[in-house]
Write a structure and sequence with these properties.
Blueprint (H helix, E strand, L loop, with lengths): L1 H23 L7 E10 L3 E10 L2 H21 L12 E11 L5 E11 L6 E10 L4 E2 L2 H4 L3 H20 L5 H7 L10 E3 L3 E6 L12 E6 L9 H7 L1
Parallel strand pairs: 2-3
Antiparallel strand pairs: 1-2, 3-4, 4-5, 5-6, 7-8, 8-9
Length: about 240
């Protein structure tokens, strides 16, 4: 009886295994199901947050965890702020954008976060993810490029050249040089869309605040020799 049961289990595993593989490669759709909005106002702060809910649960959890953690940190920084010492309310706002690649397997999400806790102006910065919509896992630079080190050297040269031209009078050599050094920290905010790899640079990273956020799109053909075969196949 035990032998028969074992054979039956083995047979079922063999039959079901291909189905499991096939299911895991299914691309969920539509990529963005809806969005979450959080609005809150107290005597000391205003909160206006938006973020997307994606069809892949793991991807949605990644975004939700980041936003809720960031919101909690904002509230804890000045929990008793009530305009007594500073007459302006603190503020936290987020907006989002989403892009898909050809075929819809990859979706990129950018959360633009703005926080004001006093001073001349609010601070704002991008946070990005590239998700594989077969299972919702995050792709990093290591997943996109054959050699992250070689890719960052090439990317840094392109970005530096583009920004020197586009910044014009806002070009500050020390800021641009330090903000474009080919290390992962400088290029961690990126997305993939149908045109290429897009890198975002927050105010102060590569130029003065007044110049705003800088965006550089590098077409895929300029990075072709650096992309992994897997990414090339997905982008076709």
């Amino acid at each position: 009886m035990r032998i028969g049961t074992a054979l039956l289990i083995g047979f079922l595993l063999i039959i079901c295994a291909p189905l499991t593989v096939a299911a895991s490669s299914t691309i969920c759709a539509p990529p963005v199901l809806t969005n979450i909005q959080i609005s809150e106002e107290t005597a000391g702060y205003n909160i206006d947050i938006q973020y997307p809910v994606l069809c892949a649960p793991a991807a949605s959890k990644t975004i939700r965890d980041y936003v809720t953690r960031s919101l909690s940190e904002f509230k804890m920084d000045f929990p008793e702020h009530d305009l007594t010492d500073y007459r302006h309310k603190h503020q936290m706002m987020t907006e989002y954008d989403a892009w898909t690649t050809e075929g819809g397997r990859l979706i990129s999400v950018k959360i633009q976060e703005m926080v004001y806790t006093g001073g001349a102006h609010p601070n704002n910065w991008p946070v990005t993810w590239v998700f594989d919509m077969t299972d919702g896992h995050v792709l990093t630079l290591d997943d996109i490029f054959i050699s992250k080190r070689d890719a960052l050297i090439e990317v840094a040269e392109i970005v530096l050249s583009v920004l020197i031209e586009s910044l014009g009078e806002m070009y500050v050599s020390d800021m641009l040089d330090s903000g474009t050094i080919p290390v992962e920290k400088n290029y961690e905010d990126f997305i993939l869309n149908k045109e290429g790899v897009v890198f975002f640079f927050a105010p102060y990273q590569v130029a003065p605040y007044a110049s705003g956020q800088q965006i550089v799109t590098i077409p895929y053909d300029r990075l072709d020799k650096l992309l992994t075969p897997e990414i090339k196949a997905i982008l076709q």
